[in-house]
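ok trying again, last paste got cut off:
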Amino acid sequence: MEYPWIDLCLRQIARHSKGWDYEVFVFDNSHLKSHRKLMRAFERVRVRPRNWVAVLGRIANRIPGPYAGRLLERRHPSALDYLAEKVPSDFDYIVTLDNDSFPVRDDWLDVLVSECERGAAAAGVYRDEMAPDVDPFLHVSGLCVAREDLHALGVSFGRDIEYIGDQYKQDVGHNQDVGQKITYEFIRLGRPIAPLERSNKLNYHFVMGGIYGDVIYHHGAGGRRAKFRKAGDVDTNERISTTLRDAAFADVDHLVAVLRGQAANDLDLTPL
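nice, full thing came through this time. structure:
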């Protein structure tokens, strides 16, 4: 299977969201027929962009050169902005997930939505593991916000950055990661947020393999090299990422039990 993260993510959503009236909107940058067929096999899943864009994308993927296949792709924040704009007006809440993040408890939506109904402007995965290098914020790997509040806020998921070759310069402010501006704009407006803090009893890495609020798992770097702003050896990070990934695909419930301290550490990794 070429894209197992999205398959695992969608399976976990279907498994743990029973009783909720929901739909899943997925932005597909691969344009692969097998990928889109996999996602459309799930009920309640809408794949974007539409098929004609995927056809053009497959044509672009066959054009020689390092960038041709990216002509019809959207970066992570741009894809989130696109999907948020397309969510119909009869939806009350928008919940974002990365493809390598997913619920691990049946009441995950109850936890997120109830925080917003109690007055929080947004609730979700609280990414504070890289402070002070990155200011803590609610991460898009598990973010819940009322649709009307998000649209009224008028803030992009993106980072305000200037690209200079392969390097970039961040603008002043909370623009260090995808979705960070949303957290701080709500705070600036005096709106409270509800953080789901990392709840692991056992950690193998300071970012990867995190459970938040005991309801959402986020692998971290599931679709890229395991390189982070802090903590440095990429080869070590890659070994941890691969081991956790294989454990998740083999038996996600066992992996979660290990991270919760409810099962023995049998992953051949040294805890922090």
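cool. Residues 117 and 146 are 9 Å apart (CA to CA). Residues 160-172 have pLDDT under 50 and may be disordered.
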